[in-house]
Structures are given as C-alpha cells and as structure tokens.
Amino acid sequence: MTISLMRESLKKLIPDDPKDAHAGLLMQRGLTEWDKDDKKAKAELIEKIVKIPAPKKDSLYALAFTRWVQATSDTGRFATLAASISGRLYTGLNSAGVLETGISTSHTYGMPLLAGSSVKGIARSHAESIGLDKSHLTVLFGDDSDSGSLKSGALVWHDAWFIPANTPPFAAEIITTHHQDYYNGKQLEADEMESPIPNQQIATQGSFYFVIESAPGAQAWAVYAQNLLIQALRTQGAGSKTASGYGYFTEAAEEAQRSIRNIQEAQNQALAAQQKAAELAAMPAHQQFIQTWQERMEEQPNKIIGNQAHDKLYQEWKAALQTAAESPDLSAEQKAEIAVAFAVKKMMTKYAKWLTDKRGKDLKPILAKLRGE
Known about the structure:
This protein is of the alpha+beta class. It contains 14 helices and 10 strands. Helix 10 packs parallel to helix 12.
C-alpha cells in the first residue's frame, strides 16, 4: 500500500536537479510517498540528495563558513583543526524520520555538521580510555556527575563545520542486514537461513573544521584538547558504525587546508591593512601626505615612461604637491619636510624610467615654493 506524504501541488516544487537545495529539508520533508514494499521513491530522493554539489565560493554557506573561520582566527583564544573523513561518516541516523536514513545538517544551510556536544563526547571518550586524570577531565569537559558539585570546563567545544572544497558533501551507501529476525528478538540465535535485506543510506564525505574555544588564560588547555581530538578522530572515529570502518579521520586534504589557509591569509591582510590605516590616521597631515605618496609610487616601480597609469600618477602627484605648497594648514617646517622627501634628484634616481628631466624641471618651482624660496 502506497501512502502519499505530500500534496500534489507541493510535489511540483521539488526540482529534478536540486543543486542549490537544502539537504536537511529534503531528508525531513522531501519524500513524497511511502510504501513498505517498494523503496523506489526513497531511492530517487537519496539520489537527488547525493547530487547536491559542494557549495560554491559565492554561496550563502561558503560566505558563512568564511565568516566563521575569520571569527575563530585568534590563536590566543581558539585552537582549530581541519580533518578529512577517511571514507564515509554516519552521524545523525536516528533523526531520519520516514526516510529511514539521515545526516546531521545545519538547520540554516543544510550542509553536514558535527554537533559540538558530539565532538566533546568523542574527545572525552578517548581521554577516559587513555586514563586521563579526573582533574584534567574536569578542566577539559566539566563535571556533571552526581557528586552534587557541578563544574563547568574551561573550554567550549563548537560545532564542526563542513569545509566547502570540491568534494560533494553527501554519498549513497548500502547497509545490508543479514539477521533481521535475530536482531528483532524473533530468534534466539542468528543463522544463515534468513535473506539479507539491503538498506539504502546517506553518508557524509569530505572535510570538517573543528574549533575549541578557551577561557581567558586557558589557551594551553585548548591546544591540549586539540591534540586529544586529533588522536580520537584518528583512532576512535566519530559517528556510528565505527566498528565497520566508518567515521575515521585523517589529516585534511590539501584542498581543504588551502581553503582554510586562503581565508586566514585574507583575514590577516585585512587586519594588517586596518592597522596600517589606523597608524596613518594618527600621523600629522604632512607625514600622511609623504607616506601615502611614497606608497603609491612603490606600487608601480620601474615601468616605462609611456605607461598611461604612470602619466596619470605623475599628474596627480604634481597637483598634490602644488596643493600642499599653497595649503594654509601646513606650517613652513612641514612643507619643507615634504620638499626634502620628494627632492628631484632623489626621485629621479629612484624612478629614472618615468621621472624624466622635463618632469623634474616642472617640479622644481613647486618644490622651491614648499621650501619657502
């Protein structure tokens, strides 16, 4: 018997090529009909989900991921880790609903994620397995035992984000149950007489970005926790079916590392530019003038004389010197300092290919005026 799960008018809204679809929404609400004896609709929906590509650079998820990496770039506060799944990962299977399979996804963006509580649990399980001291466990994970003295840890274990590289986030899997009656309690012992039952599943692949945040003065603990997490992901794994080889991580693929590195480098450059702008704004006006024009000239060194950009730069520079010479806001000493910084002989030596003799002669009267002559 087939049961319709969606109004006919809504079925038309599900595209055949869901390249920008919300995977989590498709898993929860995308199944249009259900039949316990016919899994065709389920197979078609899983096929659609696994066709969802990795987020593009200008997608909402990629932009949100960039902001997250930027927000966690302070190494004095955060310890971060990029790791790639060695094969496939199952996480969130119990939230599948009628689809009978599923993956934990971001409620907003639909991309896979590992909940911070799960990440914390993975690390804690490994820490306990290696016999870590209880006082260390309390600092790393807190103490919620029944002792009556609840203590919060010194760290915050954030959700692990899927890294938007080129690897598609979802993959189709088949898990075969060989002894269903035994598992359901209908038989006391498993035998080889039952027919195997294949089950279609969705798994995650690709790389994840893990973040551990420390309280003030506890950065060393965050780094320690980072090392514990690396060991746990490699030796213990994450998610379900780790006994079957799922959920183990390795060092992040180069593509994923490059994605993180590019974001961090852009962030560092932006911060450096902001700091430089702040330092420039704090300078006296004549020093701002000197600094700004020296930097503009350094942007295009040793270009040929006929370069249109250089001609434009020269004309702007000449006009700026003239304005400075006539400015009532600059003192005689400040104007003289500008003249020294841009002395013709010095400038012609440095920029011989575009500051010609003719241009040097044009500048001399302006520089003389700056010197008060």
